[in-house]
Amino acid sequence: MNPFRERKNILDAIGRVTRLTFSSDEKASEVMKTCPGCGQKYDSNEWAHADYVCPSCGAYISMTAAERIKKIADEGTFREFNRGRTGYDPIDFPGYEEKIQKMRKDTGLKEAVVTGSCQIGGEKAVLCVMDKRFMMASMGTAVGEKVFLAFEYAVKKKLPIVIFTASGGARMQEGIMALMQMARTSAAAARHDEAGLLYIAVMTDPTTGGVTASFASLADITLAEKGALIGFAGQRVIEQTIGEELPEGFQRADFQREKGFVDMVVERQDMKTVLARLLYMHGRGRSY
Ligand SMILES: [Zn+2]
For 62-287, which CATH superfamily applies? Predict the structure, then answer.
């Protein structure tokens, strides 16, 4: 095929993507959500139409994994992997089982990450999205396993992978088994890298602890959503440890970009277009 024609088709696909809005056949709940910036209330449909950016003040509202996938994956292309995969309670942590059951009931999720394959602006990719409503998207055995399997699938199918990270870190209720997931997911990311495949991490608010210290920091391209808190330990802990006051905006996306930890800070409305272009350039686009 004429490469210029192909490029035009792809750019058309990207153009279509940016116009994608909330699917009308899906019944959005009428629950009103309050803007964290100005306190205005909007219903789920209005938030979706506004890309989850407050129409009054520009603040970002938390997105669930499902909302994120709907915004990023081309309509009808997302196929979920390992939906029923759950972890376990390796150290018999008091109250953990009950807490997990409550989380499942409240969120409708089995665990804190949703993984699958999809197309983004017509480009095939594996997509993982962490959902911080579920125990602050902490990484236990199930999250580690699902991320690991997503990388493995991407290697097998020679696909790029995009991971939206958001996490409070390793899940302390699973003890050493949670910490082991750091090594496990890092090894999976390394295998994907050795296969010459593209990994894009999108750090969203907040990406901290053992997730920052493992797969979130190992991408070829690290994007951050505007304003996201990104770090390992929290600001207060660092201040107490080093005995110094930290600068304004410390650990926020822009700060991390200035320091070279993040490649690009992306506004939420532009996220899909940016991802589609990066996937295109590193995929079909690389031949010319
Ligand atoms: Zn607002």
Answer: 2-enoyl-CoA Hydratase; Chain A, domain 1 (3.90.226.10)
Q: What is the pLDDT of residue 286?
A: 53
- Report CA(257)–ligand 1 centroid distance (Å): 25
Q: What is the chain's mean pLDDT, rounded?
A: 90
Compute the distance from residue 56 Cα to the ligand 1 centre, in Å. 5
Q: At CA 139, angle to CA 183 and CA 234, rounded to 5?
A: 95
Domain ranges (residues) in the chain: 62-287
Pairing verdict, β 199-207 and 264-266: unpaired
Q: What is the pLDDT of residues 98-123, one digit of tens each?
A: 999 999 999 999 999 999 999 999 99
How large is the greatest C-alpha to C-alpha distance in the chain, in angstroms? 63
**Predicted confidence band at 288 (pLDDT cuts at 50, 70, 90)?**
very low
Token pair 């003040």 in the structure block, residue: 57
Distance 68 CA to ligand 1 centre (A): 19
Q: What's the pLDDT score for residue 31?
A: 80
Instruction: Using the mean position of ligand 1's atoms as its centre, give its distance from the Cα of residue 90 in Å.
Output: 42
Rounded to the nearest angstrom, the distance between the alpha carbon of 263 and the centre of ligand 1 is: 27
